Amino acid sequence: MSTDAQHQHPTAPSGTGYDEVTLARLTADAHQIVGRYPQARSALLPMLHLVQSEDGYVSRSGITFCAEVLDLTPAEVSAVATFYTQYKRRPNGTYTVGVCTNTLCAIMGGDEIFDELSEHLGIGHDETTEDGAVTLERVECNAACDYAPVMMVNWEFFDDQTPASARGVVDDLRFGKDVVPTRGASSVCTFKQMSRVLAGFTDGRADEGVGAGGATVRGTRLAREKGWTADPAPEQPAESAAGAEADQPAADATPSTGAEQSSAERTEETPADTSSGTAASADEATPAADEKSEPAAQDTTSSTSSAPTTSAPTTEGER
Ligand code: FES
């Protein structure tokens, strides 16, 4: 596709191997995705997630579909799909279980958790159980080091894990029990469902739960208790200072639901909101400065399928 008009209205590719109904649906979705970008090729990453939402991995049909819609060669699409580990080259399990084994999580037990799951499930890194339920991965830092060691299930957080709690989570997943993340969303969706979210189609769960829990806002709480403040910013020329002020929200402004940082400010509504170690706001429910957060759902064999004991997840960015 080479014109702006075509960028906004991708035609239906003919050589993908998808049946007519599937192709029409994917093409309509592609139309929405491509329309978000000034150049069609910029839509490749969400398009690959769209393919995964259909096929469970980046299939040959999906590569052809992306190439034809975005006016790229299959080789160009493959080059991108094989660069990022979030794009799967063979059918993925219903749940991607990613154990962080980066520095801090490894020190706090991440390696033991991975080894436990690997032995328990009988699979290694980037392998899937025979029943197709779980794909196990070592993952890099999930930006949740304050809850180390961290495990993710389809990019939803399971904080403060132990080998036993992690084993409980994967058993519940395989037995079809409800599994509740320890922070964020109050449920875990399937890999295909999450892939559709990553393609840019909301599932309505983005504002569930508390994103910034107790451990995350502990420094803020401590500073307020102690009356600590940052040094004042250096004087700025009048013009640039006025411009900077215009870009900043009022200090006491309360974000509306769905706005940036709204999760940390909203009232408790979901099971994940009331779990331990999370805070409804930076001023409330944050553990005392010297208080250590309790591990989340340690024996998750039962806890993940009943009342949530802690918090939940997010989506991971491209790695
Ligand atoms: S090292 Fe594991 S979340 Fe940062």
From TrEMBL:
Keywords: 2Fe-2S, Iron, Iron-sulfur, Metal-binding. GO terms for molecular function: 2 iron, 2 sulfur cluster binding; metal ion binding; NADH dehydrogenase activity. Pfam families: 2Fe-2S_thioredx. It comes from the Bacteria. Residues 226-319 are annotated as: Disordered. CDD domains: TRX_Fd_NuoE (cd03064). Residues 230-253, 272-288, 300-319 have a biased composition (Low complexity). Its cofactor is [2Fe-2S] cluster. Belongs to the complex I 24 kDa subunit family. PANTHER family: NADH DEHYDROGENASE [UBIQUINONE] FLAVOPROTEIN 2, MITOCHONDRIAL (PTHR10371:SF3), NADH DEHYDROGENASE UBIQUINONE FLAVOPROTEIN 2, MITOCHONDRIAL (PTHR10371). This is NADH dehydrogenase subunit E.
